[in-house]
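Why does residue order matter? Because the sequence determines the fold. Keep that principle in mind as you read this record.
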Amino acid sequence: MKTILSTLILSFVLMSANAQKSASSMATKNENPAAYNYVVMTKKVDQLYPILLAAAHLAKEDKKQFGQFEVIICGKDIGEMTDEQKMEKHLKEAEMLGVNILACGFSLKKFDVNPEKIPGNVKIVENGILHNMELQKKGYLSLEL
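Structure:
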């Protein structure tokens, strides 16, 4: 009987110590993240202006903890990305801020937009929705407009 009671007490003590150690490491990990990474998915090229304003504000606020910031453009208005005049100002601002603008390859195909007409500094991802979800799995903060 003493052996069973001693085993139960020892098991309880070990489980409590492991739970405290796990909770402590999680708290430390969440309190001081190495960087804040962001991803925004939008269907409207015109949304780039307010998105880039938000990126500038977050970069100023986060300081050295400002990490990656990606904007994924998907949907039927993706063809507007071929408008050089419309995109020029946004692309310059994004470059200054270190923001990556991405085009959804699935949307390009679906809405018959020639990928060669997308500006050279815009990366094309095969599937914007999947890319967004993969970034969320990596801990990116995500917003869809």
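The first helix runs from residue 2 to 31.
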